Amino acid sequence: MTKMNMVQAINSAQDVMLERDSSVVVFGEDVGYFGGVFNCTEGLQKKYGIQRVFDTPIAEGGIIALAIGMGVNEMRPVTEIQFSDYIYPAFDQIVSEASRLRYRSGGEYWAPITIRTPCGGGIRGGQTHSQSPEGIFTHVSGVKTAMPSNPYDAKGLLISAIEDDDPTIFFEPKRLYNGPFFGDPKAQSQSWDSHVKGDVPEGHYTVPIGKAETVRAGSDLTIVTYGTMVHVSLAAAELSGHDVEVIDLRTLTPLDIDHIASSVCRTGRCVIVHEATKTGGFGAEILSQIQETCFWKLESPIVRVAGWDIPYPHAFEWEYFPGQGRVLDAIKKVMEG
Amino acid sequence: MVPSSGKNLNVPTPRHRPGEEPEFDDLDIPNAGAAPRPDILTDPKEMFAYANTMIRVLDMKNKAVGEWNPCLSPDDLRKGLTDMMITRIYDDRMQNMQRVGKMSFYMKSRGEEAVAVAQAMALDKKDMLFPSYRQQGLLISRGRDLLDMMNHCLSNSGDNCKGRQLPIMYTWKEGNFFSISGNLGTQFCQAVGWAVASVYKGEDAIASTWVGEGTTAESDFHHGMTFAAVYNAPVLLNVVNNQWAISSFQGFAGGERATFASRGIGYGMPGLRVDGNDFLAVYAATKWAAERARCGGGPTMIEHFTYRAGGHSTSDDPAKYRPEDEPEVWPLGDPIERLKNHLIEIGEWSDERHEQTAKDITALVTKKYKEAESYGTLNSGARPEVSSMFEDVFKEMPDNLRRQRQQLGV
Cβ distance B99 to B147 under 8 Å? Predict the structure, then answer.
């Protein structure tokens, strides 16, 4: 075990896989010599050479198409889309191609590609460097989507994604790269050093895709969340005065509904928290599935806490961001309901 | 609202519309044999002229002339001719079966058979093909059983795509033929990726990919060209300029201002403009580009100047947007007729033999089709297991799909 922040953990996962599997290559905009705008590939080109870790033209659609072709020809590409806000030019390649190739070809072809992409706000990124577009991709059949909330999960999940024979979009909440974030930008920033999930094995290990984790046990209410909001929710749970259970989804699709349902059926109350905009967000899907499986056990209506249905506004970042106050309001509402 | 006077938007207009008499008298068609054949590793900067001329081998007297003449054996020429004939007869039969409701959709390749068949012959079988939807001649040349092709089109119990794809969106891994998407151009840069991986693996297999001229307007075209050039990928980037994208003529892809082949120049790769109805020219240009790629010379873009003699698909009537007799007056003729006449000219074929071959192929296609129907059609008979529609979404079926399958009761 060694102390790693999320950037180091993500770097380490790629390092481990480049070392273990000669079919793994890492590419994207600025990931080579420069090591990526968030340093997630720092040192990898120096260690593995320019043939294994290289820069690409600024063309997200081309990056994913290249990866698909390489994947079809027995390689295992790990790509970076520099910001998830830039993923849309690759939408057709992800939705119509990578996600459907195995299906449409009757299982003859597939593309085992990993798409890493930083997401989320709270870094003064404005509306083109802050988005959380995961819900757009959770709607797509044939692609897996994951979003870790800490260094340990990030490394283990990324290794799982790279080893997986299906395409995976790996969302990295960039506000968590250097430390857990509890929703208050004025608070003293924390590092991962003192966090239990900042202890990361140096070698190979996996966190399975498709498995949620209960990160706080409780009996009054279940918060279902992922990414940055895991930490905001945990902080709100502490302040709430209630015995709150918090589930970190880690993988969005395939969704670990059994894990969620067993908790909500027990507590009878649920709050769903994500940073992405509310309408049509992944929270709506989670809510529907809970309603389908736990309706008769529910003590009160489920409440969603999410970003407002607006583009991420530069000057009003913290009015947009669903912080502890909004999570506490939701807990209160659900407990009173 | 319209633009103010004198500043009208340039909305391209084709030469002819229905009711007008088609003519192509001013089309600049260089003589067969006029273009020299450069060394395969010629610097692209010295090859600009090839994007604006037209590589042609078969002249109007049915002779093969000039440096690009691939000097194929009579057996190879006959194989090329026969495969083009199979493609056309197969297409006609399948379109007819669509018309009588046996399948949902069909797309013929009439007039463009040389592009697929000659290219398949010029490439090695280990080379990977990333086609568009009008290159069924690739499958036929590589020897795919017509029964398997028909089973796919009928979405029946013998369909290797398990009833999941529109007819003609073939997949054939055994023949190194990629899965046709149905979205335009998406395979263009994927072919580059495949070719790049071939280099990693130390193999000398190359990739070849095809789009129509209309699709050059898609960003995927630019991605494919850019990535191929940047990484010097061993790939052939083919643009089949068949003049029409459904009802939009090639002017809507920018063809009025510059040839499609000239786009290669801007990316720093050779752009070859080829008479796409000339089997020998297509073969020769493909061979040149394939050898170049195999020798580390990188990508080549080839524009196949041809004509879509049929409709875009069974869903459109070309008489609604172009003169019905436009295909007949197309000045570069028909690829099958031209190769047939060449073989006759050199004493290796005859009208009788041609007729007999056509009869034999028709009988074969009829027999295969009957056999295919015994595996079912889209509307009746056997089809893939319904439960299989939940398979292959992922390598392993996740719980939500398992539950949905149970819900459907299959």
Answer: no
**Beta pairing partners, A145:** A169, A253
Please say whether the beta carbons of A247 and B391 come within 8 A.
Answer: no
Helix (H, G, I), strand (E, B) or coil at A219: coil
Phi and psi of B81, rounded to 5°? Answer: -65, -45
Burial of A248 (C-beta count, 10 Å sphere; 0-12/13-18/19+): buried
Judge whether A11 lies within some domain: yes
Q: B193-238: per-residue pLDDT in tens?
A: 999 999 999 999 999 999 999 999 999 999 999 999 999 999 999 9
A117 and A10 inside one domain: yes
Question: Can you give the pLDDT at residue B326?
Answer: 94
List the single residue in B with minimal CA-CA distance to A91.
B186
- What token pair was written down for B45? 């900067």
CA distance linking residue B170 with residue B136, whole number of Å: 8
A61–B392 C-beta distance less than 8 A: no
CB contact under 8 A, A97 and B162: no
pLDDT along chain A (337 residues), means of 10: 97 98 98 98 98 98 98 98 98 98 98 98 94 98 98 98 98 98 95 97 98 98 98 98 98 98 98 98 98 97 98 96 98 95
Count chain A–chain B contacts defined by CB atoms under 8 A: 142
Q: How far apart are the first and last CA of chain B?
A: 57
Query: Does the global pTM surpass 0.90?
Result: yes
Find residues 155-184 of chain B whose CB sits inside 8 Å of chain A.
Answer: 159-162, 164-165, 169, 171-173, 178-179, 181, 183
Nearest chain A residue to B224 by CA distance is A62
Rounded to 5 degrees, what are φ and ψ at A277? Answer: -60, 155
B393 touches chain A (CB under 8 A): yes
Q: Which residues make Cβ contacts (< 8 Å) with residue A320, sequence separation at least 6?
A: A121, A307, A308, A310, A312, A313
> Exposed/middle/buried for A227, CB within 10 Å: 0-12, 13-18, 19+?
buried
Range(s) of the domain holding residue A286 = 210-336
| pLDDT tens digits, B42-56 | 999 999 999 999 999
* In-domain check, residue A95: yes
In a domain, B392, yes or no: no
Domain-terminating residue out of A176, A198, A227 = A176
Tokens of A83: 């910001």
User: Residue B232 region, left (φ>0) first, then alpha (ψ -120 to 50), else beta?
Assistant: left
Q: How far is A213 from chain B (nearest CA, A)?
A: 17
SS3 content of chain B, % helix, strand, coil (to 5): 40, 10, 50
CB atoms B128 and A51 under 8 Å: no
